[in-house]
Each structure stands twice: as structure tokens, then as C-alpha cells.
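for the recovery benchmark. C-alpha cells below, seq after
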């Protein structure tokens, strides 16, 4: 578990692992970055209360560095990727190990079950589980069990992590997708199982949501730079939308019909948002168009901007 500023969620995340009914031994290796809250204190209290919890340092605070440090400090042949704000479903590890054995896969994972605690978080959760939000990846929208491009978090055979060199420390974001890509290129299978679920809490403010998707777009651009053969239409849709809307807004000053482009996009997120949130509360439905636009346009802008290096 790579941890940074997770004071409020860390204990619940660790408890969800320790409560698993896997018949073999379990250890929880928490890689703690330079947090500004009580994350380290909480981690050390958990380690004192249960010897199965091990705390290691992650001086950079970056996710891939924390993951690699935790893997290096771990002792077992199955590695379960976990986050400080996630909660494993009952039987998650037992089921994942069973699927690893049955399929021979290098990595097994399932659904990111986004659940909100207020109207904004719930609107983000609804968007994350719809193709209209952030694409049709199985770990977001579900699907049948089978091989996949990537999965949420993941349960790995250590031998495969060692074979491909672990997480690439260059990737601040998108490190999971990039690792799974290298596993597949090396002949390994990434297996999706919808029975495996991890509860995820979306960002709680508009600013945090925008920053999350902007940086995700930046690092997905870096994945495409490093692995150009991985690009597909789904990745290009948000940056093309940003370019089209910008061209329509500017072009409309000289040729008014160009304003139909941003107007059409606004109509799409309004109508589409109303449809995917049709069973939600009025507060969630009211926030849906803004959530969709924020996710699409900040992701697209981040992809166009790329990373500095």
C-alpha cells in the first residue's frame, strides 16, 4: 500500500485486508510518504497493534516508488496491490488466488466500485461507471470474466513482477496500465474477474477532481509516447473534444455556426448526464453535466499538455 495523506482512510483500508479469509499467511506492507497529516502515526499504531502490518519509508512520496519499496520488503509469492482509500470486498484475496491458479494469469483484478458520500462524490462515481464518463474499460463498467488490457489494482504473481522489472518509477500516474501493458507484451495474461471488487471513494471537491483528471491525461500521454502502439480512439476522444470546442468557441466569433460545436457538446453531456443519473437524487443529477465536462476536458487538456519531461 503506497500511502500519502491518508489519515482518515488508512485504518479502514488495512482492516479490510486483515479481515480477509485467505487460508494462508498475510502481511500488509505500508509504504508511507512524507505526509502532512497523521498518516505515519496511524500506520505505526496499526503496526504496533498487529505484527502482520509492516511500515516502510517512501521518501519521494510517489506511488511507483512506494509500490516498489513495499514489494521489495514483502515476503510472499502473491502480491496484492492496495490503496489507502480502498476497501477490499469479503473473500477478495481468496478468490483472486483461486483465479490465479485456475487461469495461470500473471495478474488478476476486478471492479473499482466507486461510491460517493455526498452528491458530488456520487455524481463522480456514476460517471466513473459509465462509458460516457471515462470509457468502457471493464474495471469501470463491468463485463464478463476474461483477459483484459488492465484491471483495478491487481493481484500479481511475484515472478511476473520480477520478470518485467516492477513498476516503472518514471510514471507518476498510469503506472498500473503501463505495467500491465509490459506484462501482456512479455506474454503474460491480465485477467478480469467481476466478482473481485474494491470500494473506491471519488474526489470530494471540483478542484481535486479537475487536478486528478488533468494529471491522469498528462501521464496517459506519456504512456503513448513510450508505447505508441498502445494508442486507440478512446484515448484520443478527450483531446479532440478539447480542440474541437476551443476551435468552435474562437471560430464562432467570425462564423457563428461554429458555436454549434460547443453547444452540441453541452447538449450531449446534459442529456447523457440526465440519462446515466436518472435513478439518482436531484442533487446528483444537477451535478452530472459539470462532472462529465470536468472529467472529459481536464483529461483532454492534460493529454495535450503532456508532462514536462
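predicted aa per position
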Amino acid at each position: 500500500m503506497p500511502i500519502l495523506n491518508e489519515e482518515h482512510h488508512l485504518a479502514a483500508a488495512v482492516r479490510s485486508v486483515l479481515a480477509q479469509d485467505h487460508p494462508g499467511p498475510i502481511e500488509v506492507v505500508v509504504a508511507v510518504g512524507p505526509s502532512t497529516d497523521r498518516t505515519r502515526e496511524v500506520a505505526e499504531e496499526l503496526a504496533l497493534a498487529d505484527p502482520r502490518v509492516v511500515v516502510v519509508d517512501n521518501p519521494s512520496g510517489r506511488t511507483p516508488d512506494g509500490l516498489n519499496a513495499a514489494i521489495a520488503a514483502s515476503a510472499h509469492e502473491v502480491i496484492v496491490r492496495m490503496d489507502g482509500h480502498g476497501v477490499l470486498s469479503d473473500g477478495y484475496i481468496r478468490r483472486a488466488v483461486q483465479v490465479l491458479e485456475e487461469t495461470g494469469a500473471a495478474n488478476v483484478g476486478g471492479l473499482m466500485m466507486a461510491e460517493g458520500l455526498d452528491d458530488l462524490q456520487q455524481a463522480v462515481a456514476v460517471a466513473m461507471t459509465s462509458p460516457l464518463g471515462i470509457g468502457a474499460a471493464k474495471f469501470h463498467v463491468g463485463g464478463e470474466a476474461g483477459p483484459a488490457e488492465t484491471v483495478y489494482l491487481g493481484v500479481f504473481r511475484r515472478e511476473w513482477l520480477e520478470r518485467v522489472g516492477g513498476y516503472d518509477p518514471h510514471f507518476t500516474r498510469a503506472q498500473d496500465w503501463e505495467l500491465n501493458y509490459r506484462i501482456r507484451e512479455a506474454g503474460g495474461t491480465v485477467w478480469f474477474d467481476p466478482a473481485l471488487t474494491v470500494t473506491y471513494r471519488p474526489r470530494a471537491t471540483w478542484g481535486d477532481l479537475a487536478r486528478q483528471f488533468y494529471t491522469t491525461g498528462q501521464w496517459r500521454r506519456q504512456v503513448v509516447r513510450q508505447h505508441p502502439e498502445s494508442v486507440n480512439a478512446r484515448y484520443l476522444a478527450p483531446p479532440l473534444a478539447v480542440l474541437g470546442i476551443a476551435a468552435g468557441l474562437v471560430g464562432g466569433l467570425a462564423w457563428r455556426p461554429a458555436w454549434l460545436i460547443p453547444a452540441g457538446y453541452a447538449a450531449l453531456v446534459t442529456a447523457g448526464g440526465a440519462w446515466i443519473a436518472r435513478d439518482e437524487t436531484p442533487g446528483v443529477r444537477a451535478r452530472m453535466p459539470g462532472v462529465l465536462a470536468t472529467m472529459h476536458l481536464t483529461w483532454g487538456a492534460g493529454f495535450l499538455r503532456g508532462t514536462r519531461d
